[in-house]
């Protein structure tokens, strides 16, 4: 404990505990990306039996909710985010009986199951869309969004407005036989459902009820804030003068009827005390987010915002280069943390998922000498904030982005490949541009997160007995789950310890208030979590070098009159090695717990 005494007040005032307690706030979610988790039947693709075989591993880590990315029937244009049948399982993943078995196995272990609900759009192979497409008079026609063309001077049909698709090109696809365009905010094989139609809402409600009755404990709701569109479908403002297609988000993110639709869903969820997390891209207004998750709203439990994970997206496209900045990260985190605490909302905590690159490569360092320490530092930074924590498979091992030698032939992701095709078609001889794009893919392509899980050092990393659908990372012989489970000093065990700490002190680490310290510090992210029962000080060094640091006076004042201890460290730091001024090791992280007994650990 620091020796400086101070006659200032011996602590900040205890925050008012406004946050209501529920089971899902105290939970930790482990996201499984089925195709890349564990292949049990030797076809190179992960499956549900594979997930069952690894449930004990997930439980030992300390997670208690398993979120499965989409498992329903799908032509896999977008890895299952294009559903062609909401009531059956994609064959290579297994059957409904396998899912029943998995649900039971999860529940036997006292854990919960969360499914991915993809209902902003379906696959173009879904029966509803096949019907809708078959004729303008078909009763399903109005289940999707159809518009008449505009006509250019050449008399050729043009899309009804200038919205661009998230996966490149126009967001409208012309259907020649019926002479109309349909809307697809993502790939053309993912037509948007028309939520204005009550039959669509009823059909989605049926899907939700069906899986809750079968034992699911909740849903992650894909792109859910895009379901209500401005019905005048206006042109988007031109922000990219070099493209005919513009970002129309303003006209369909959190649209006019979103909350009415979410309340319709929320009513069903409430009957089952179900968990829900809504994916909400492109929203920066916290009050708008609060309308979806406020304790009095009966809509969703929590939302994923995108502010932290778009910090390195350049103008116009995620593949435009931009360096992320620690000050910006601080201000985003601190804004969300304090706002939700003060307004009885709730945060999600994530740095990785199937759409994001690996955190260690993005926010830490994947150089051999720093990979493990920066992965542990990021676990500390993320995991002790206020909110429900989401861990993406392999994050607990510190898995990095794809190897540097990957060429475009290795990538499978539709977003990456569409971008590449667009660039190489429009500028075929511009080799420097192509190289710059490849560099950006190694930093931000979604495939960075999708390489198979590295279970052991056997061929194919113990993921499969055959060559997997996406190459295994070269580093699997060294970096794998077996090695880390057997090594008490590994990234895996650090996560276990961090989660144990979080669980031991829910009053402080789940429900406590958040305060950012040293906001101007250029290298360190430091914060406190405080409850009437005590306080945790979390210190993290985001740099690959030593950084000197002095305890902030306010903190000294708080701890001076209380006992405390270092309860977590990635650099062997103990209470004895703490003095008023210390030198933090590269990517060092530690947690000082004070004002409470530490025997709960
Ligand atoms: C968000 C999902 O996370 C992503 O993987 C998918 O491509 C889009 N929504 C479209 O469904």
TrEMBL record:
One Pfam family named in its UniProt record: Alpha-amylase
UniProt keyword terms in alphabetical order: Glycosidase, Hydrolase, Maltose metabolism
Database matches in InterPro entries: GH, GH13_cat_dom, Glyco_hydro_b, O16G_dom_2
Gene3D superfamilies tied to this protein: Glycosidases (3.20.20.80), Golgi alpha-mannosidase II (2.60.40.1180), Oligo-1,6-glucosidase, Domain 2 (3.90.400.10)
Molecular function in Gene Ontology: alpha-amylase activity; glucan 1,4-alpha-maltotriohydrolase activity; oligo-1,6-glucosidase activity; sucrose alpha-glucosidase activity
Example GO biological process: maltose catabolic process
Residue ranges of domain Glycosyl hydrolase family 13 catalytic in the record: 31-450
This protein's record includes keyword Translocase: no
Taxonomic superkingdom: Eukaryota
PANTHER family membership: ALPHA-AMYLASE FAMILY MEMBER, GLYCOSYL HYDROLASE FAMILY 13 CATALYTIC DOMAIN-CONTAINING PROTEIN
Record-stated family: Belongs to the glycosyl hydrolase 13 family.
Protein name: Glycoside hydrolase superfamily
Provenance organism: Aspergillus coremiiformis
